[in-house]
Amino acid sequence: MMTNPVGKITQGQFSFLPELTDAEISLQVEYGLRRGYAWSVEYTDDPHPRNTYWEMFGMPMFDLRDAAGVMLELHNCRKTFPQHYIRLVAFDATRGVESIAMSFIVHRPAREPGFGLIRQEGPGRALRYTVHGYGTDRPEGERSGG
Amino acid sequence: MTAIANETRGAGPSAITDVARRYRAGVLKYRQMGYWEPDYQPKPTDTICLFRITPQEGVDPIEAAAAVAGESSTATWTVVWTDRLTAGDSYRAKAFRVEPVPNAPGQFFAWVAYDIILFEEGSIANMTASLIGNVFSFKPLKAARLEDIQVPPAYVKTFKGPPTGLIVERERLDKFGRPLLGATTKPKLGLSGRNYGRVIYEGLKGGLDFMKDDENINSQPFMHWRDRFLYVMDAVNKASAATGEVKGSYLNVTAATMEDVYERAEFAKQLGSVVVMIDLVIGWTAIQSMSNWARRNDMILHMHRAGHGTYTRQKNHGVSFRVIAKWLRLAGVDHLHAGTAVGKLEGDPLTVQGYYNVCRDSYTRQDLPRGIFFDQDWCDIRKVLPVASGGIHAGQMHQLLDLFGDDVVLQFGGGTIGHPAGIQAGAVANRVALEAMVKARNEGEDIRIKGAEILRKTARFCAPLQQALDTWGEITFNYTPTDASDFTPSAAVAH
């Protein structure tokens, strides 16, 4: 179990709040749509802080303007990957931004094994650090208690 | 307003066009030397400065403006024949407009244009040596202040700007859609490296994204820099493993010499830090050197504006912080302390918002209530992430989010470390308050009106937030700002 104050991985916009209900998720999606963002659903069983590329559950929904459509994709993803992390990501294609504008976790595995810190002693008192996911020693698809 | 300019235009002596008279040995009025050109149409490659000047008793404001133009470009106190070896007119800055400052007797705004040939490419040191060099000590002026500057695209493009910029910083940190959270380690002086690292670890594990060295933490007897860096990076990595988030701590590499600065920055890099920090007092040359270093080494460059208050705060003399912010964006820093409006340090809310816009805009529009006199095309150079730090706490979260939006680092030093239940609890209170406020805003709540209520409601499931509100909820710093915009927008100014 993770020992940080909320006992879970704290990536994304809302990890310190109680898990968002579907109605609350839908309101966030609507906010993003009002601002012209494109939503996508991403999932992973390797939530390492430097693992940038979670798997894409389909393409970013560039032309979708209805939150219900995003929620449908999310439900499909949850059904397919019940023991993975799933996040919603909003993309802003405005010149000078062209990057992610919102990102929050909307689904977690039942058990979050967290990470260990491996220290390799170097010259002087220097250390080299590796953050290692306890859940990632097993092959893809067999992780996160799944 | 323009009435004064027009009146004086005719009254005083104007530029001497007869060459023999112009260069006869002796002393001329600045306006006679060609530093006052009321009909001048600035070129698209000119830099325009707006000075606020307070001429000595009896000094004509137009002559004073011409003197500012002269002393910040080519003039010396007397005529020199060697001017005739040059295309002199190019090198003379030109005052072209003077207006009284509304509600400030004795003060005048003076617009001065500078040809692009005056400044070395990509050198803030060179530009500042002209614009805020001798001129600020000039005797005929009681006081002078550089209020704002418009830098032409042709000169903007000679700078590389922020090495990382706020967009790429967010991508590297994997943090989007909310302000970042930080805290300055306290007490700022006296902690050993080991104790210092403890504060870092608790703050980051509790939910902050960044911790920060204070401006005067370098390498004193109580904590040498290598010791600090080693303990801090252990804390950063441990917190990263405990949370699954990328974490950072601004390692202050400010030192006595540039060699020391580089040595410290290299060590920070070796240890895997994502960010290093410098103080404004290291000077423009060192800042640009460190900006290049940060580019080469994928490092976020944090700028602490230590010392700026000595010349930015008083309205009648010095340099406005909006000008400093523009120069720093060109010079290339990623983070810049830009005020809080609601905290313990100086700042009128609209004026502070003006600084934020200068940091973050793609194109800054004239905005007189926010103290922005000029349009500024930033020509796609990256955006600086402003930092709000100094006397702010969780109870102000709605005000901070409303004033500054998502692209800001909110730094609660005392407001984290001084929490009655400890540093982690302080961090939790801030992170929960922040996330709850962002969520509510996105859901369509008017946080200006309902902010306090949202905080109280959120505190029901978060004891640390309740304790923070109980401890600091009523603390405000309501003093009259010394640096509010003097502008009643008028047709004359908003031309």
Name a few traits of the molecule:
heterodimer, A: 146 residues, alpha+beta, 4-stranded antiparallel beta sheet, two-stranded antiparallel sheet, 2 helices, 6 strands, B: 495 residues, alpha/beta, 8-stranded parallel barrel, 5-stranded mixed beta sheet, 20 helices, 15% strand, elongated, disordered N terminus, disordered C terminus
Model description:
The complex is a heterodimer of chains A (146) and B (495). Chain A has 146 residues and is of the alpha+beta class. In chain A, 18% of the residues lie in helices and 27% in strands. Chain A has two helices and six strands. A four-stranded antiparallel beta sheet of chain A has the order 2-1-3-4. In chain A, strands 5-6 form a two-stranded antiparallel sheet. In chain A, α1 packs across α2. The two termini of chain A are 16 Å apart. By secondary structure, chain B is α/β, with parallel strands linked by helices. Helix content of chain B is 39%, strand content 15%. Chain B contains 20 helices and 15 strands. Chain B has helices at residues 2-11, 19-22, 30-33, 61-71, 88-91, 124-131, 153-156, 165-173, 193-205, 225-243, 258-270, 284-296, 309-312, 321-331, 349-360, 397-404, 414-417, 423-442, 447-459, 463-472, and strands spanning 47-55, 94-100, 108-114, 141-150, 180-184, 210-212, 248-252, 275-279, 300-304, 318-319, 335-337, 363-364, 376-377, 385-389, 409-411. In chain B, the strands form three sheets. In chain B, strands 5-6-7-8-9-11-14-15 form an eight-stranded parallel β-barrel, surrounded by six helices. At the A-B interface, α1, β4, β5 and β6 of A face α8, α10 and α18 of B.
